[in-house]
UniProtKB/TrEMBL annotation:
<dbReference type="InterPro" id="IPR014729">
    <property type="entry name" value="Rossmann-like_a/b/a_fold"/>
</dbReference>
<dbReference type="GO" id="GO:0005737">
    <property type="term" value="C:cytoplasm"/>
</dbReference>
<keyword id="KW-0436">Ligase</keyword>
<feature type="binding site">
    <location>
        <position position="289"/>
    </location>
    <ligand>
        <name>ATP</name>
    </ligand>
</feature>
<dbReference type="InterPro" id="IPR009080">
    <property type="entry name" value="tRNAsynth_Ia_anticodon-bd"/>
</dbReference>
<dbReference type="InterPro" id="IPR024909">
    <property type="entry name" value="Cys-tRNA/MSH_ligase"/>
</dbReference>
<dbReference type="GO" id="GO:0004817">
    <property type="term" value="F:cysteine-tRNA ligase activity"/>
</dbReference>
<dbReference type="InterPro" id="IPR015803">
    <property type="entry name" value="Cys-tRNA-ligase"/>
</dbReference>
<feature type="short sequence motif" description="'KMSKS' region">
    <location>
        <begin position="286"/>
        <end position="290"/>
    </location>
</feature>
<protein>
    <recommendedName>
        <fullName>Cysteine--tRNA ligase</fullName>
        <ecNumber>6.1.1.16</ecNumber>
    </recommendedName>
</protein>
<dbReference type="GO" id="GO:0008270">
    <property type="term" value="F:zinc ion binding"/>
</dbReference>
<dbReference type="InterPro" id="IPR015273">
    <property type="entry name" value="Cys-tRNA-synt_Ia_DALR"/>
</dbReference>
<feature type="domain" description="Cysteinyl-tRNA synthetase class Ia DALR">
    <location>
        <begin position="374"/>
        <end position="441"/>
    </location>
</feature>
<dbReference type="InterPro" id="IPR032678">
    <property type="entry name" value="tRNA-synt_1_cat_dom"/>
</dbReference>
<feature type="binding site">
    <location>
        <position position="254"/>
    </location>
    <ligand>
        <name>Zn(2+)</name>
    </ligand>
</feature>
<feature type="binding site">
    <location>
        <position position="28"/>
    </location>
    <ligand>
        <name>Zn(2+)</name>
    </ligand>
</feature>
<comment type="similarity">
    <text>Belongs to the class-I aminoacyl-tRNA synthetase family.</text>
</comment>
Length: 494
RNA sequence: GCCAAGGUGGCAGAGUCCGGCCGAACGCAGCGGCCUGCAGAGCCGCCCAUCGCCGGUUCAAAUCCGGCCCUUGGCUCCA
C-alpha cells in the first residue's frame, strides 16, 4: 500500500515517492509579528500529522520549519509595551511564544527552525548567483528577480504572465523592469510610512526608519519576502526537497516566486510535491490577523486542552477549508470524549475479573484488525485524517459493544484494542491516551473525590437521593464527571 | 477580469482522482427504547440528503463531459 498525495504542481493525485529512505519536508512557517492563532496552528498540525504518518510508515523525516523574523509588520511593532525597541527583540518575543504554543499542541519537533536573521549570508549568496546568471538585476540599491528570464513562471498557480502584467498596477514610474518582477533585496530600512500601514491605530506612529539592515554588495538593505524560504530550504535540505507544505493562500505569489528564484539559481527542481493546507474559516472568512476574527492558540489551549484541539483538526482533511465555530469545536470535544471513554472502558474491562484469556470474541478481533487496516488505507489516501479518525471511532463502538454485550471479556482482544488506540490515536494522531494525570496533585484530588463519592454512596443507601444528587452536581461543577455503575460510582476529570 | 479551491442532511464533514459495494461514512444536534432511584455514559433504533442549477455520455453518475450560478482564497514586496 502506497501513499498518494495531491500535488498542487500538477493538480493531480500522485503516488508519493521519496528520493530515498528519508523524506525532506519543508514547512512554510510563520511571520512572527504576533502570537499564533488557530489558523496558523492548522498548518502546523497537518504538517505534524504528515510527519508522524511518514515516520509510522518507516521513513526518516527531516522536517524544517522556518520563522520569518525579518518583516515590516514586525518592525512596525517596535516600541509597543513589553515587545522591545528593535526588530530582533520584538521577533524573539513572539518566537518564544510560538514555541510555547507548539509544545502545547504536542507537535513533533522539527529538526531545525531556521530564522531569516540567521541566514542573511546565504540569502545574499543566492541573490548574487541569480544576478550572475542574469535572472536578477540591481536598481537603486534594490535587487529584483527578472521574471521574463524564467520560462516556467506561473507553473504552480497557472497564472499567465501576460494576464498578470495587464492587471499589475504600472501607473507610476517603477524601478522594476517589468511590473511582475519581485524584490529579492530591498534597499534601506523600513520607512515610517511603511511601518505606519501595519502600526496599530491607537499607537503613535514611528518617526524614523526602523528595522534591521544588513550590508550587501548593493548597499545596506533587507531581504525580500520570498527569497528567505529558498535560501533556508536549500541550506538545510539541499537543492531539491521532497515535500513543501504551506497554506493555500501562499500559492501565489509566495510559492510561485520561490520556485522561480530557486530553480533559476540551481537548475534543479525545487520541490517535488507541493501540498497546500486549506484555510480555517470563521463566519465565512478566513481566520486572519488582519480581519481580527482569530482565536489565539494559547487561549484555545487554556479553554479546550490539547486533545480537543487536535481532534478538531482531525475532523477535516488537510486540503479542505475547515470551519471554526463554537459548534464545531464542541463537536470535537464530544468526539474526543467518546474515544477516551472507550479507551478507558477497554482498560477497565481488561483489569476486571471478568476478563479471560480463553474467551474469544470474533467480532472484536475482527474490528481491531479492520481498524488498523482501514486506518492505514485512509492515511495513505492523501492523509485522510477524518476517515482515519472514523475508523478509530469505529473501534470505540466495537469496544463499547463488547463490554455491553458479554459477561466475560476477551482479554487479548481488549489488549489489542488498547494498543491500537495508543499506536494510532497516540503515536500517529498525537492524542494523549492513558496519560490522565498531569501533576502530583492529581492523586490527592482523586482521593478527595473518592471521599466525597463514599459519602454520597452512604446517602444513596440511606435513600437521601436529593443530597446525593447535590453532591454529584457540585462535583460536576468542579469538572469531575460522575458515572454510577453496577459496582458503584466512577469518575473522571474533565 | 484572471488563477485556484469549494458548493453533499438541522450542523459539521468523508466520498469525487479509479462511475456500480453511496438506497451516501464517522460524528454533533434532535426523537424513541434498554439500563438507572434519577441523570450521565454506553447499547439498540429512528429522524434529516431531488449530492448548487441545467444539459450530455453510460446498462449505471455525488463521482465523467459541457454550460451557468454562488462561496472562499489569491492577483506581489507598497504605489
Amino acid at each position: 500500500m502506497t501513499l498518494s498525495v495531491t500535488n498542487t504542481l500538477t493538480g493531480a493525485r500522485e503516488e508519493f515517492e521519496s528520493h530515498g529512505d528519508e523524506v525532506l519536508l519543508y514547512v512554510c512557517g510563520l511571520t512572527v509579528s504576533d502570537d499564533a492563532h488557530l489558523g496558523h496552528a492548522r498548518l502546523w498540525m497537518h504538517a505534524d500529522l504528515m510527519h508522524r504518518w511518514l515516520e509510522y510508515e518507516g521513513y526518516d523525516v527531516r522536517h524544517v520549519e522556518n520563522f520569518t523574523d525579518v518583516n515590516e509588520k514586525i518592525a512596525a511593532r517596535i516600541g509597543e509595551a513589553d515587545l522591545g525597541d528593535d526588530e530582533a527583540t520584538v521577533a524573539n518575543h513572539f518566537v518564544s511564544d510560538v514555541i510555547r504554543d507548539m509544545r502545547g499542541l504536542n507537535l513533533k519537533r522539527a529538526e531545525v527552525y531556521p530564522r531569516v536573521s540567521e541566514h542573511i549570508p546565504e540569502i545574499i549568496d543566492l541573490i548574487e548567483t541569480l544576478v550572475d546568471r542574469g535572472h536578477a538585476y540591481e536598481s537603486n540599491g534594490s535587487v529584483y528577480f527578472d521574471v521574463s528570464t524564467f520560462d516556467d513562471y506561473g507553473k504552480l498557480s497557472n497564472q499567465k504572465l501576460e494576464e498578470l502584467e495587464s492587471h499589475a498596477d504600472d501607473g507610476e514610474r517603477s524601478e522594476k523592469r517589468n511590473p511582475t518582477d519581485f524584490a529579492l533585496w530591498k534597499a534601506g530600512a523600513v520607512t515610517p510610512e511603511t511601518a505606519a500601514e501595519h502600526r496599530h491605530a491607537d499607537l503613535d506612529p514611528l518617526t524614523d526608519p526602523c528595522g534591521q539592515t544588513w550590508e550587501s554588495p548593493w548597499g545596506d538593505g533587507r531581504p525580500g519576502w520570498h527569497i528567505e524560504c529558498s535560501a533556508m530550504s536549500m541550506t538545510h535540505l539541499g537543492e531539491t526537497i521532497d515535500i513543501h507544505v504551506g497554506g493555500r493562500d501562499l500559492v501565489f505569489p509566495h510559492h510561485e516566486n520561490e520556485i522561480a528564484q530557486s530553480e533559476a539559481a540551481t537548475g534543479a527542481q525545487f520541490a517535488r510535491y507541493w501540498l497546500h493546507v486549506g484555510l480555517l474559516q470563521t463566519d465565512g472568512d478566513k481566520m486572519s490577523s488582519s480581519l481580527g476574527n482569530f482565536f489565539y492558540v494559547a487561549d484555545a489551549l487554556d479553554e479546550f486542552g490539547v486533545d480537543v484541539i487536535r481532534t478538531f483538526y482531525l475532523s477535516t482533511a488537510y486540503g479542505s477549508e475547515q470551519t471554526y465555530s463554537e459548534e464545531t469545536i464542541s463537536e470535537a470535544e464530544e468526539r474526543w470524549n467518546r474515544l477516551e471513554r472507550a479507551y478507558e472502558a477497554a482498560a477497565e474491562a481488561c483489569d476486571s475479573p471478568d476478563a479471560r484469556t480463553k474467551v474469544e470474541s470474533e467480532t472484536l478481533r475482527t474490528a481491531v484488525a479492520e481498524t488498523r487496516e482501514d486506518f492505514r488505507a485512509a492515511m495513505n489516501d492523501d492523509f485522510n485524517v477524518r476517515e482515519a479518525m472514523a475508523e478509530l471511532l469505529g473501534l470505540a463502538s466495537a469496544v463499547n459493544r463488547h463490554v455491553a454485550d458479554v459477561d466475560e471479556y476477551d482479554y487479548r482482544a481488549l489488549r489489542e484494542a488498547i494498543e491500537t488506540f495508543e499506536d494510532l490515536g497516540g503515536d500517529v494522531f498525537g492524542l494523549s491516551f492513558g496519560a490522565s494525570g498531569d501533576g502530583g496533585d492529581v492523586s490527592v484530588a482523586e482521593d478527595l473525590v473518592q471521599l466525597v463519592l463514599d459519602v454520597r454512596e452512604a446517602e444513596r443507601e440511606a435513600g437521601n437521593y436529593e443530597r446525593a444528587d447535590d453532591l454529584r452536581d457540585e462535583l460536576t461543577a468542579l469538572g469531575v464527571e460522575v458515572e454510577d455503575g453496577e459496582d458503584g460510582a466512577t469518575f473522571r476529570f474533565e
